[in-house]
Design brief:
By secondary structure, this protein is mostly helical. The protein has two domains: about 55 residues, Arc Repressor Mutant, subunit A, CATH 1.10.10; about 130 residues. The chain is elongated, with a radius of gyration of 19 Å. It starts with 15 loop residues before the first helix and ends in an 8-residue tail after the last helix.
Length: about 200
């Protein structure tokens, strides 16, 4: 059982935040993201509940670490600005690579319909994507492409970004189902490119 809450003892000190993160990864790999609770994490990390709340507001705040730890606002893209499909794929692969660092078991358990943090991160609130997320950056790239005439002026940028996110989610899910045998970057590039080429509104004027 985790120790009682209160001010974090010095013994749990500087490494306690990393202990929480490591314990969360172990729980997700073994049992799934839905088994991540404050009590379970504290028990796995052998720390007090007060120490947990010293670093994270709640369970959702902890899970957002695995997503919000990356900021896309200042991320430089290497793909040609006129190749908007490749630029969007590059953005998403930056996020997917982050997932993959934790291994296949983590990916399978984290990428779940029960993970509300994932849904919140790769979604919208009242038509607005969360600042600093891959969704917000993809919308920014798409708006710039429209301004430069790379895609059509009539294109519904927000809807397109939602469509592409759906494609990405499907590719990651299929990658998990095949135990990583699918070439994720290649498949993602192919499907996103096909989406762009198959929509007349995305043709620049």
């Amino acid at each position: 059982m985790p120790r009682k809450s209160g001010r974090p003892p010095k013994a749990e000190g500087e490494n306690s935040r990393q202990q929480i993160i490591d314990a969360t990864v172990r729980i997700i790999k073994k049992q799934g993201a839905d088994h991540v609770t404050v009590r379970n994490v504290c028990s796995e990390a052998d720390i007090g509940i007060g120490t947990f709340y010293f670093h994270f507001k709640n369970k959702d705040d902890l899970l957002m670490y695995f997503l919000g730890d990356i900021s896309f606002e200042g991320f430089e893209l290497s793909a040609d600005p006129e190749d908007i499909a490749s630029r969007i794929v590059e953005l998403y692969m930056h996020l997917i690579d982050r997932y993959m660092e934790f291994g296949m078991d983590f990916m399978k358990s984290f990428y779940s319909t029960k993970n509300k943090s994932l849904s919140a991160y790769m979604g919208e609130t009242e038509g607005v994507f969360p600042a600093g997320t891959v969704m917000a950056r993809s919308e920014k790239e798409m708006l710039l492409a429209r301004e430069q005439g790379i895609i059509g002026k009539s294109a519904d940028i927000h809807r397109i970004c939602m469509d592409i996110c759906t494609i990405v989610k499907g590719c990651v899910f299929e990658w998990c189902l095949t135990d990583g045998r699918m070439d994720l970057p290649d498949t993602l590039q192919r499907l996103v490119s096909a989406y762009f080429h198959g929509n007349k509104c995305l043709v620049g004027k």
